Amino acid sequence: MSPRTSPGTSTGAGGRAEQLPAVTLEDVRAADALLDGVVRRTPLEPSAALSELLGGPVLLKCENLQHAGSFKIRGAYTRMSRLSQAERERGVVAASAGNHAQGVALAARLLGIRSTIWMPVGAPIPKVEATRRYGAEVHQAGTTVDEALVHALAHERETGAVLIHPFDHADIVAGQGTVGLELLEQAPDVRTVVVCTGGGGLVAGIATAVKALAPHVRVVAAQAEGAAAWPASLDAGEPRALARMATMADGIAVGRPGDVPFGLVRELVDDVVTVAEESLSRALLMLLERSKLVVEPAGAAAAAALLEAPEAFEPPVAVVLSGGNVDPLLLMRVIRHGMAAAGRYLGCRVRVPDRPGALSGVLAVLAEADANVLEVFHTRTTAALAVDEVEIGLQLETKGHDHATAVLAALAASGVRPVA
Questions:
Q1: What is the mean pLDDT of residues 307-335?
Q2: Of the residues 72, 81, 115, 127, which is catalytic?
Q3: What is the pLDDT of residues 264-277, one digit of tens each?
Q4: CA 193 to each of CA 77, 187, 360: distance values in angstroms, whole numbers, following the listed order
Q5: Residue 382 sits in a domain of what CATH number?
Q6: Where along the chain is composition biased (Polar residues) (predicted)?
Q7: CATH of the domain at 250
Q8: Among residues 47, 279, 281, 322, which one is catalytic?
């Protein structure tokens, strides 16, 4: 990744160079002092599963256990606490899929400021309701954060409310950077820090702190493949918008990197990697099963990067789990998807003679193979079947890919005819 050639600048409309506010270690330290007693110093927990995979220590920075369920309160409170009295009286407005919304709403309540939040249509219901419970007025429009942001900007123009951007402001970046300060205090020997990335505020802030205090530490940003705006933007040398996005990781589904984070990421972040949806599912499931942590798909992106390429990360590794605000319905779907990706679910169809005892024979084979039967269904009326045949569909719980292969082999050895 090439370093930025003009620190603190970006190219605006018409090619005009615009000076952007710099974010420094001193800014992050000032935010840290401001947040003392406001945010939780989140734990750094060892992950036995990831440590075994990498062959060295892996630590989980649990921002999913932060107030309001994510790191967002850090930047939101930092930004809003610095508003003038006149600005506070006008209120604040924000756009978010959920975590920034809750962070802004909670910070506004703590500071006594009126807040209005625009959220995409289809945002997880628990996130919408939690934002309202913190006292915000919630409106829904558009299908992405970027589209909701258009409405928030219009609200700003119409009412004079102060926009609290989710990532594109120096105070936001400084506030998020306090995660990096804590992390280095908790694990001074860390060699690699992996951070999930959407608009870039979190990774830019963490990289600002980490590179200033421990420049030898490698900082890696992880994005969902279906919403990966950073690789193309870095190649172009400026933020570029995606034409479309499709990912379960709604918290990092941001179509265009922020101007303020962009220069910091280009200068300080060592690499940007992307992860598949299957890896997000596997990571979420692993964190739930092995670490007993509820993490949303966006928050699991950094862990997913380790699952995909463990050899690419030098331990000790710190993985930032950015949030835990997950819709229970999505959680159920993701768990099933993650189990399937890990070989824990097996769906298959077999054909057997249509006579008494045929099904019990199949079930006996499965019991002997130690496969747990979740669902069974019969088909008798398709033209592909012989008159004396029945097709049995099976949904099975298995112990992994090797066990699933062994179950299929056991069925074949018993004389049961599989269907492609």
A1: 92
A2: 72
A3: 999 999 999 999 99
A4: 24, 11, 53
A5: 3.30.70.260
A6: 1-10
A7: 3.40.50.1100
A8: 322
